[in-house]
Amino acid sequence: MNAPYIMPKTPRNNARQLRKLDFDLANYFSNTIIPQLLVDADLILRIFTPPAMKQFSLSYDHVGSSIHDIKDNIRYPTFVENIEEVIATGENLEKEIQTTDGLWYQMNIVPYIEHEEEITNGVIITFIDITKRLNAIKELEKLNAQHETLMFALSHDIRQPISAITLLAETLTQAYKNHDLQQFDKWIKNLRQFSKGLASLVDDFITDNGNMSKEEPRELRLNIQEICADVLTALKYEIKLHRIEVIKNFQTSEIIFPKNSLRSVVYNLVHNAIKYRDPDKTARIEISTEKVERFVVLCVQDNGPGIAEKDQARIFEKSLRIREDVQGTGMGLYVAKRMIEAHGGRITLESKPGEGTTFKVFFKSEFSPKKH
Question: What is the rounded distance in angstroms from the CA atom of residue 350 to the CA atom of residue 331?
Answer without folding.
Answer: 19
